[in-house]
């Protein structure tokens, strides 16, 4: 008998991560792939189009979101693949993630092409509608991770406890990150103590002169990758569940710390 697959307990060791995603979660796999394949297109457009929005090239935002959405969809596809006991729920969640994030990227691309802000933009009726539609599709992200956690709670005897702990912590952190995102949208600004669009760190453009709430949102979302990867390392190194709990709690504190730091108007660096 072939050894158990750490990432996919119900599959053999010979079946790789992307092979199983493509075979079983094709909707997420191919949508994520398209998102990542758009990156060179956006990069080319950034070289051909000199327009700027909030101080940076208009195509930088689509690039960042294409990277984030591709990684997010593949990560969530892996999460959902663990929920073999709930096929209906799993399929509904996959469709939600794909549709919501596809709408997000399409509208961000549209606004980049128009040379205007995609977020916090109520300058015209069209811009308000676009921003409202984005919010409508993303709003459930505050609740969906909690619904997923309830399903994972029922799988406690079927997954390696280190993987399970990392998934459940990361889902709750995602819910918190989504609430932070909603908080940003209600403020119509991500900067604290300075106007949006000032000097920022390369690529991410996080403010270097004041607080930036986007950092907590970003760190929180990427708990989805960081914590499970640590859990896999813990399995490989034969570390116990306590190590995963400590790292997960520490990561949760980190999200809170960068949020508080931003709200005090302090830059990350």
From TrEMBL:
The keyword Transmembrane applies. The keyword Membrane applies. Keywords: Membrane, Transmembrane, Transmembrane helix. The chain crosses the membrane at residues 27-45, 65-84, 96-116, 128-148, 169-188, 215-235, 242-264. It comes from the Bacteria. This is Uncharacterized protein.
């Amino acid at each position: 008998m072939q050894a158990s697959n750490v990432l996919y307990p119900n599959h053999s060791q010979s079946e790789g991560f992307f092979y199983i995603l493509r075979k079983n979660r094709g909707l997420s796999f191919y949508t994520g792939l398209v998102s990542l394949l758009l990156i060179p297109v956006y990069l080319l457009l950034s070289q051909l189009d000199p327009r700027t929005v909030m101080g940076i090239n208009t195509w930088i935002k689509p690039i960042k979101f294409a990277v984030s959405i591709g990684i997010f969809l593949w990560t969530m596809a892996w999460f959902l693949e663990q929920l073999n006991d709930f096929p209906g729920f799993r399929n509904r969640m996959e469709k939600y993630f794909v549709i919501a994030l596809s709408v997000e990227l399409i509208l961000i691309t549209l606004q980049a092409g128009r040379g205007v802000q995609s977020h916090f933009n109520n300058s015209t009726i069209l811009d308000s509608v676009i921003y409202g539609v984005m919010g409508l599709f993303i709003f459930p992200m505050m609740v969906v991770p909690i619904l997923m956690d309830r399903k994972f709670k029922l799988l406690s005897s079927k997954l390696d406890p280190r993987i399970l702990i990392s998934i459940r912590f990361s889902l709750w952190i995602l819910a918190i990150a989504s609430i932070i995102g909603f908080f940003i949208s209600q403020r119509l600004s991500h900067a604290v103590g300075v106007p949006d669009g000032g000097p920022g760190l390369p690529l991410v453009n996080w403010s270097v002169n004041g607080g930036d709430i986007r950092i907590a949102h970003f760190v929180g979302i990427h708990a989805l990758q960081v914590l499970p990867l640590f859990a896999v390392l813990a399995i490989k190194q034969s570390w116990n569940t306590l190590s995963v709990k400590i790292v997960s709690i520490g990561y949760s504190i980190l999200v809170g710390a960068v949020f508080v730091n931003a709200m005090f108007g302090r830059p990350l660096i």
